[in-house]
Amino acid sequence: MSTRARLSVVFASVVAVLIMGATGPAAAQQATGQGVTAALLLPLDASEGGGGGAAAPAGAAASSATAPEQGIAVKLGGKETLTIKGFLSATYYAQDASFDGGFGNGQNAEWPTANYPSAKWFNGGDLRNTRLIMAFDGPETADGWKMGAYVEGDFFGGFNGAGAFSQQQATPRLRLAFTDLTKGGTTLRIGQFWSPFFGEVPESLSHIAFPLGYGSAGMLGWRFPGIFLYQKLTPKTAKTQIQLDLAAMEGSWNGPATGELNNQTFGNVGFRGQFDAKLNFSGKDGAGNAWHFYVAGHYDQKSLNGVGNAFPAQHGQSSLNGTGAEIGGGYKIGAFLIHGNIYTTKADGQNFAALTQFGDIKDTGGWLQLGYDFSKRWSAYVFYGTVNANRNDVLEWVGATGRQKNQQEVAMVEWSLGQYQLGLEWLHDDLTLVNSTKLKGNQIALSTRFFL
Fold this sequence. Notes:
Elements: H1 3-22, H2 24-29, E1 72-75, E2 81-95, E3 97-98, E4 114-115, E5 122-126, E6 131-140, E7 146-154, E8 173-183, E9 186-194, E10 223-232, E11 240-249, E12 274-284, E13 290-303, E14 319-333, E15 336-346, E16 362-373, E17 378-389, H3 391-397, E18 403-417, E19 420-433, E20 438-451
Antiparallel strand pairs: 1-2, 2-5, 2-6, 2-20, 3-4, 6-7, 7-8, 8-9, 9-10, 10-11, 11-12, 12-13, 13-14, 14-15, 15-16, 16-17, 17-18, 18-19, 19-20
């Protein structure tokens, strides 16, 4: 029996024992559908990015950091409120391959980059998903305007030193920071926030800041400074809520290296920028089951000659047009959850497309996750995602060791008690390079999350 098959049997056995021991057949039959999976269909203002009384993108799925998060409200002397919230996330994991050549090992593992011929397994602990949030909720003015602000950070910062003790001293980083101005169904948001391409988010207790499939198996999007407009198109009483999201964001690309820290990348030349639009639909069916759906588009342009025309054309091209289209959504039917997205892009590496590779590369991808609430405390999830980048494009722009295709499979069982969650997760990746090299990796992770 292969290592993968043995891991599947072990994981399935553990899950079965845990669920049957904790719930039993009767409890499973009595599940109300109000367990953990229900939180995944909350609008974005119930999770990250909803500070300041903002009108949230209707129907946008919450991240896996969802409903239990309430926070501590601090009165500031007037009608203003500062809410301090977040969560503590801890993962203990074991891997049989290194994912470090991608984003990293542990909580940001996405695809394998090295297989070991022997002594494969290693283990570690990771707390970098831990997140702190401050949300300022301002008063409503006499003429109906409402203002707010939001700051969010975690511990996936850059280089934190070397040596025996550096691994236990994670570096903070800024994730989101923006101000909101809202009146009626219109919200103007200025600052750093998620591009509309960042839509549906799979549930995981191990992979939160770097979700399952992110840049590796069907999930896209990144946060950029920009101007965001959210416009509700239907009254609150409408059975189907419709909202339009528009964003004009700073340009971004991976070169030249001398300009990446000074806003002089190939994506920053002139006034090109990035432009996204998303149309959201959400509602409930006749039985009260929640659903949402969205369609999003992307356009940007990069000048490969750089600022001041300091660089020659690349592969015979002096500019690149980045385009993309994405559809996604979710449906909560009783105790069952189904959600996911599919997309196609071209030259959109700054949104983690094409297996997070940069060039005039076309790719398609998508993911699907199924969830089931056995009770209010016990849930289980299975995930499958894949990306297929155009082989000739990757060969030309990246080379023979470029990433062509990846498949990711994940299974998780989750236990919840109020603000506390505990999960056991198995992740498997199959990566194919342009030169036909196959890289495979497994991660088994025990994770906990506590909402502040």
